[in-house]
Amino acid sequence: MNVFDGQFPRELEDESIYIMREVAAQFERPVLLFSGGKDSITLVRLAEKAFYPGKIPFPLLHVDTGHNFPETIAFRDALVEELGLELHVRYVQDSIDKKIAVEESGKYASRNALQTVTLLAAIEEFKFDACIGGARRDEEKARAKERVFSVRDDFGQWDSKKQRPELFDMLNGRINVGENVRAFPISNWTEIDVWNYIREEGLEIPSIYYAHQREVFQRDGMIWPNSTFINKDENEKIETRTVRFRTVGDMTCTAAVESDADQIETVIEEILSATISERGARIDDKRSESAMEKRKQYGYF
Amino acid sequence: MDISNKQVLRIATAGSVDDGKSTLIGRLLFDTKSITSDKLLAIEKSSRRKGLDYIDLSLLTDGLVAEREQGITIDVAHIYFATKSRKYIIADTPGHIEYTRNMVTGASNADASLILIDARNGLVEQTRRHLYIAHLLRVPKVVVCINKMDLVGYDHARFKSIVYEVKALVTSASLAGFDISFLPISSLYGENIVEGSQEMPWYLGNSLIEVLEAIEVKVQQRELPSRFPVQYVIRPKTQKYHDYRGYAGKVASGVFKVGDMVTVLPSGAVSEICAVQKYRTELNEAIAGESVSVLLKDDIGASRGDMLVKEGSINFGNEITSDVCWMDSNPLVAGKTYKLQHGVSESRVKVLGLNHKVNTESLLVESGISDFQLNDIGEVVLRSSKPVLADSYWQNRNNGAFILIDEFTNNTVGVGFVA
Questions:
Q1: Which domains does chain B have, with CATH numbers?
Q2: Which residue of A14, A137, A167 is in closest CB contact with B403?
Q3: Can you tell me the distance from the alpha carbon of A205 to that of A255, in angstroms, rounded to the nearest whole number?
Q4: pTM over cut 0.90
Q5: Contact: A167, B64; criterion CB under 8 Å
Q6: ipTM above 0.85, yes or no
Q7: CB A4 to CB B75 under 8 A?
Q8: pLDDT single digits (tens) A102-153
Q9: Rounded to an integer, what distance in angstroms lies between the CA atom of residue B106 and that of residue B90?
Q10: What is the Cα–Cα distance from A257 to A45, expressed in whole angstroms?
Q11: Which of A10, A151, A163, A168 should one mutate to test binding to chain B, selecting the residue with the greatest count of B CBs within 10 A?
Q12: Contact (Cβ atoms closer than 8 angstroms) between residue A188 and residue A15
């Protein structure tokens, strides 16, 4: 992969801060969707900068699948404490208990898709009118067509044919009752931009992004983290390897990569020489060619 | 004038269904090694499933199921790649007349516009439309790629005659405002995309990527009148920052320095800038494009939608003459009211009249118009409920455009360029 001289282009930060301020100005009850991954950590930093020395004028929402990496949860709580943020957590398990979501079964069972149900319930509960997400257009081809302000109906559905044109930097967040907007301030960032930003800003990220020893097993040519949440075959052998994660979803949908990169510089070097894309390690995207587009139509962010 | 190579270059592409635009972009990504092997493997598989004997690079950019099925680009897609010297963002748009609004959208943020011509067909209606849009939007640089040279035997004479035709059109229709260059390419075989061409020794110019790398984005905004739209007022009201009042926003044009006297529009109140801040950093100045907070000596009570200006005050009034590109299936008609959003400022407007419409295929002006249908471009007169603090788009691209919003559906239905 090519990259120009390894710097973060600061005009991307200016654009993202502008978008953060538009969200705060145009909506009554915005929320920042926080997963504990590097992209949502970047969002928190941008929000901090956008409103400094004031506080971030909206809360964080974490939709907890219950299948998280424990390191991510510990990180989340420390960050919230440090910045004095307001955090809401809503659990996929509660949606399952209320029978509004049904647990998947079988070898590939994951709660990734169920997050949407819990998210939509939380939007309704808190009457959020804008959800700020860390999705980037470079991640995936359906996301490449996403707007910065993406209007969803009350089923959270994304209709690619009815998207509003976005001209210059003017954002139209006006919505009708029952609709809400997904706002994506880092739409124009690429994976390497996020990493360079984390390095230049000196941001803390969960330890699982760096090389560490972990129990893993091999499946479909990918390295899966061992956990009690994954249904394993008897011939899937657990072994301890030195790995890191390039993207962090929950433990059932995120594959590891073999790596010795234990600090930000070596992580960046590794990404620059990688021949596999970031979401190449996302098991949830491998389901079909249009897996992401389909999930977005059902309200995934 | 301050000239610098920006770290990010934004390109708009437009092309007809079959002139190979998606293939060209796929080729740019492929030849700059911006495609990872898993993505390549995925499109190899899809190409084979479709019974192709080559890798269909257009599958990289056509992200929606409907697009892959029909083999065309419908929406604006954003594609990212980087070279050693800068980052590129491509807004890839379809070229058909029914997607004029998408082309205008893509071109609105572009530093450069890439126009494709099929060497077999030469200049067609769509080429006129694409050139007209680049002109209307004042995209500073146009790169015309004459593609599929392999299908005309890499014929130099064919290339020359198309270049001649395009240049003649640009002159006769007075399509001003951009710098233009021409390249003979074959995106299918990668001729003159990143590498030069063995097949066209008669072409001595640069490859496409070399042309793009050399584009110097003139940071003229610094020379333009200073405009700072107040986007958000930061008032922490904490003990430490009890009287803090930061006017947060992104500088639209010009430069704002500590010590500058500024006028707040529309009130006309005057004060002096006592600080320009970016997070914890105190700056001496902020230039166009920077998101900052400006602090003033006096409490002049500016709020969102107001604008700080320096020299060259805005000649604002309540009547606006403007070119408009219509983007909605419900037509624009005289007498109807809309919301107008100029930057971060909102007002209501009434359509007083429609002056004329431009036929984007013939480039002829038609008068006596009763409405604008989806994708129509023409001139209107609007009356606004409050002053719109816009400059002429031709003089200041960063403070001369607005969008129109339907009051009932809330959809963005048009874009305007103040005359």
A1: 8-214 (3.40.50.300), 227-309 (2.40.30.10), 317-418 (2.40.30.10)
A2: A167
A3: 18
A4: yes
A5: no
A6: yes
A7: no
A8: 988 888 888 888 899 999 999 999 999 999 999 999 887 778 888 999 999 8
A9: 9
A10: 27
A11: A168
A12: yes
